[in-house]
């Protein structure tokens, strides 16, 4: 299935593979792509995690790995309409609840999931997989151990960040936020938390001070420290945008600051992002796993 969707095969071959997995080629589909990183376990575990989440959706599905990296493979799930009338598009919304249940068992692992918009018939699947892959890049840029981004729900700044190389993202974030995180560690202050609250309040001093439970003068002092350490002027729109984007870039896994900041930064992120997050399985002759219809 993965090779067929990557261009290794024609539409007739793809339709045959869909039927072998219990999927109806002329019905609607949703594509999901996922990666599970940070665990020293066989790649098969990632397949098992995605399968378990899909079982709860009550729709037929095929799960496989896309060609490429064998260590941390990108997984693909093709979800179709159920004979009972349950549509793939409606069922995918229940996927969030399944991730909530599974997240606690991931330990240090990080699960990123991208979901396409619904499309009809086998001919639409390659485009749906591209959509899901793009949403997956956005999910990988989000904080937290589990992130899910739906293609139709991505905020514009996440679309841009998803296309920026990871090294560039890290350098941008480090240049702006390392002075603040370092100062917070050394002095037990909360400048990063204050910055996030100030930007979330759109620079409204009184509203931000109330949300932090501090006096406005205390807030002004903290903002002055932030401006001194970063070289930014929070009265300038351009500088606010730079700091906003830096806060939305994920820190390396395992960073204590990342855990804390991630919980804060996701508060006003895209609606497609979630925090932590049947019957027997069958394998078709092409190696794809099929959820029961």
Can you describe this structure?
It contains 13 helices and eight strands. With 293 residues, it is an alpha+beta fold. Helix 8 crosses helix 12 (237-248) and helix 9 packs across helix 11. The two termini are 18 Å apart. Residues 251-293 have low confidence and may be disordered.
The overall pLDDT, averaged over residues, is 76
Radius of gyration: 22 Å
Number of strands: 8
Weakly predicted, low-confidence segments: 251-293
Overall body shape: elongated
CATH class of the largest domain: Alpha Beta
The percentage of residues in β strands lies in: 5-15%
Write down the secondary-structure element order: HHEHEEHHEEHEHHHHHHHEE
> How many distinct helices?
13
Largest sheet features:
8 strands, mixed
Q: What would you call the structural class?
A: alpha+beta
CATH topology of the largest domain: Alpha-Beta Plaits
| Number of domains as seen in the coordinates | 2
> Which CATH architecture of the largest domain is right?
2-Layer Sandwich
Euclidean distance between termini CA atoms: 18 Å
Helix content: 40-55%
List the helices and strands and how they pair.
Layout: H1 2-5, H2 11-20, E1 28-37, H3 44-55, E2 61-65, E3 75-80, H4 88-92, H5 95-103, E4 110-115, E5 119-120, H6 125-140, E6 146-150, H7 156-162, H8 166-187, H9 191-200, H10 205-212, H11 216-230, H12 237-248, H13 256-265, E7 282-283, E8 289-291
Parallel strand pairs: 4-6
Antiparallel strand pairs: 1-3, 1-4, 1-5, 2-3, 2-8, 7-8
Helix pairs in contact: 3-5, 6-7, 8-12, 9-10, 9-11, 10-11
